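Contributing new records

If you add data, match the layout below exactly. Sequence lines come first and carry their own label; structure lines follow with theirs. Keep one chain per record. Anything else will be rejected by the validation script.
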Amino acid sequence: MDPLFISIIAFVAVVAIIVAIMLVMNDFSNTEVEDRLQVLTGHKNSVEEGKDEKILKKQMLKDGVGGMSKAFNNLIFKFGNLPLLFEQAHSPIGIEVFAIISIVFAAVGVVGGMAAHAPTPLLPVCALFAGILPYMWILRRRKKRFARFGAQLPDALELIARALRSGHSLASGIQVVVHEMPEPISEEFGMAYEEQNLGIPIDKALKNVFRRVPNLDFKFFVTAVAIQRQAGGDLAEILDKIGHIVRERFRIMGQVQALTGEGRISGVVLMALPIVLFFVMYYLNAEYMMLLFTEELGRKMIAGAVFLQILGAITIKKIIEIKI
């Protein structure tokens, strides 16, 4: 039987299993709380043994799947703080769904590599590159959210400073930011405002925001608030100065980005050129390129090339990355 046909069948089977698990985890019927409310209001007979038994079986099955989910979450906490990453990215999907999507992408990468007649040693590489795409999407989403938060921060500090000058408290100034500013800064400040309403000190609530959005300029704001609460002072003037410094940093960063544009483009070209040439030479003369996998010296050359690529990428990044 054709290996490509076998791979397609295996992929379809894996997708069907994943869909079945998701359907089991999502119970579209009434929850246990809703069933009890219906019994109390008289809309449902509590002696419906068949239905109760059915609900009990569903609950047991759901508890079993929930136990697997809990074990998976414990494994995630051991190997990395993925929950914080998802919270920082404000991801619309959970970690379990993310893992399933990554596995599906890896299977698609293997099938795509086999369809493109890639050599067998490259199939795990295809699976790795395809499976890491969801993780790269999460990182990009988090980076964009951080960038929007940093761009909105000077305006938010000015709003708080104006509220303080008009006689409002710091909590009222934060509430002004929640109502007047767009996301993500309104959402993060809104969580801080709700936390201080529940009795958490305002400086600790702002530190929780910094844990979710580790922005250096926001850390200055949190430090200023903590010092002002202990030693006093004109917080509005301090916030104006912080906002001015942040705006100047953005102006200088724009100039740096313009001056280092050529170096960044050169780095992308130098990193992509060996990979593109490898695939071009493989499709022109596959037997010649397969020596890199079949011979011991060829495998050492691949390992050396990968190491030099990583070293070159780090070096180029150090050259063009200027901290302000």
